[in-house]
Amino acid sequence: MVKKAILLMAIPALLSCEQKSRPNVQDVMKPLPPGTVQLDGYLDHFIDLSMEGWNKGVIPYAEFVEFFRSGRPKFALGEMWGKAVRSGCMFYRYTHDPELKKMMDETVKDLLSTQRENGSISCVEIEKQPEQSELWERKYVMLGLEEYYEWVNPDPAVLDALKKQADNIISIVGHAPKTEITDVGWSATNIGHEPCHIESGTLLEPFMRLYKWTGEQRYLDFAAYIFEMGGTKHYNVFERALHNVEPYKMAGNYPKAYEMTSLFEGLTEYYRATGNPDMKRMILNYYHNIRTKEITIIGNGGCDQPYHPRVAGEAWGNTAVEQTNPDITRMMETCTGVTWMKFCSQVLRLTGDPSAVDEIEKYVYNGLIGAMKPTGDGFSYVNLLNGPKVNGQGWGWMFDDLHVTCCNLNGPMGLAYIPFVAVMSTAEGPVVNLYNAGTIEMKSPRNKDLKLQIVSDYPQSGNVRIDVRPAKKEKFNLKLRIPGWSENTVVKINGEPFGKAMPGAYLDILREWREDDRVELVLDMKGRLIDAPEGSNPVSPDFQAVKWGPVVLARDENRDPGYNKPVRIIADAEGLVKIQKVRPTLPGTRMEFIVPAEEGDIRMSDYASVNGWNGSHICTWLPLTPGHRR
Question: Is the pTM of this model over 0.70?
Answer without folding.
Answer: yes
